[in-house]
């Protein structure tokens, strides 16, 4: 039983689907292209930071497989979550609740891409990376989507691991193993995910409440969520700086990561301090927006320094 009762509207007003009517754009939307772009980018950074190298064609195949695997996870997520997607304003226009693609079509699409991406990565790159990708797809589609998302307010904390695995898979594609550096990359994204999504949940809490999803603001309240955002941010910022003292990032990264971290903490503090009205909502929106830029710039700096090092 979910911690939040699922509303009766979830079974009323059924969607009318027309099989075989989905366009190419509808199937692309199933892949969650925005999420896929972040996956490709962070996986590429993991590949570039890893010791050793891959032939450019093999590296391209690895990135393609990781991207397809991420898209497959998104399709399976939309297949399973179609009932709640049609209730939330943020997701109501997705292809399945909009009636453009049937659940069976989405399931077949997601499963085909899942199997194909894992087999291709295993055969053409290495089987450790292939197995890692298979585990990631399973973790997101089954552990997070089917179990955690509707059963615990810690869904984002635990389930966020799925989104943090890509740089490790990229690293594993080059080395056939993982290391401390790849674990640090994982932990940065893992600790970034809760304040990022909880900031979103603060100004979209009514959506989650109506859909019966036990996000932290719905179950524990907005004040508790603000506290958790601040606590996770306090852990995230020094962790994000750690590649510098650990020796796999340079002083430019260290200085910029420190400045970005100060900005992140400042916005997290505003979210914690402002509790009511439009100012509180704007603070949450600003943290959510900045968090995307924050993560991108961290990994872009790591990538830039790696490219400079390789050219020297």
TrEMBL record:
The chain crosses the membrane at residues 35-54, 60-80, 101-121, 127-148, 155-172, 184-203, 229-246, 252-272, 284-303. It is an enzyme of class 2 (transferase). Pathway: Porphyrin-containing compound metabolism; heme O biosynthesis; heme O from protoheme: step 1/1. It is found in: Cell membrane. It holds the Pfam family UbiA. One of its GO terms (cellular component) is plasma membrane. CDD domains: PT_UbiA_Cox10. Its EC number is 2.5.1.141. It catalyses: heme b + (2E,6E)-farnesyl diphosphate + H2O = Fe(II)-heme o + diphosphate. InterPro entries: Protohaem_IX_farnesylTrfase, UbiA_prenyltransferase, UbiA_prenylTrfase_CS, UbiA_sf. GO terms for biological process: heme O biosynthetic process. GO terms for molecular function: protoheme IX farnesyltransferase activity. Converts heme B (protoheme IX) to heme O by substitution of the vinyl group on carbon 2 of heme B porphyrin ring with a hydroxyethyl farnesyl side group. This is Protoheme IX farnesyltransferase. The gene is ctaB.
